[in-house]
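ARCHIVE CARD
Drawer: 12
Card no.: 0347
Subject: one protein chain, sequence and derived structure
Cross-reference: see card 0346
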Amino acid sequence: MTLVEEAFLDIHRGRIHPFYIQIGRKRRKEDLTYYFQGFPSFHPVEKALLGAAEGRVYDAAAGAGRMGLTLQERRIEAVCGDASSVMRRIGLERGCSDYRIEDLLAPTPPEYFFDTVVFMGNSIGFCRNKDEIAGVVKTLSERLVPGGLLLMSATDPSVFGLEKSAFLPFVQIYKKREEKGGWFLADISLIREASSGLFTIEAMMSHEGMNGFFFRKREG
């Protein structure tokens, strides 16, 4: 179990401990309870994007299931997916009606197709380079019917003082234990490049350090 998985499981059980990431010599506290909160606490970009979800929805890299649960509350059929069995356990216990294991970096052929894919909260950050990002975007397109929607948000690299896309390594600290980690921070141009040929961009937005994309899968 990774430190993030352990922290999520502790939060789910009501036991909250400080979680930090250290970048170089700078340490910052991360509020992982955010990923358990409901729609009112969502980032404005996430709120705007989620309002466009329609039909049958796949919540990719779902984590604790905050997006899927919000959609269920709106009586929208939502299927959650994540590579972590710990996240699946948490999501199911929180009430996600359908939660599947899927590693977007090692995908299997899709069994079902969706009208909308939701990919929020800088989930693209688990990639390590632009080739992996292109592969994940392609996998998400394969989960969609022609004309389907990909609603995606990503942290802008400038939040961490970066001028362009880059992998940001850090050390995670939880309960006095350390573990190496990192996020890939993809700028708008890289995400546009990764989606080119697969999607048309119907809308984009940027607000408070987050970029949002409203993609529609190309027909044929």
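Annotation on reverse: The chain has six helices and eleven strands. The radius of gyration is 17 Å.
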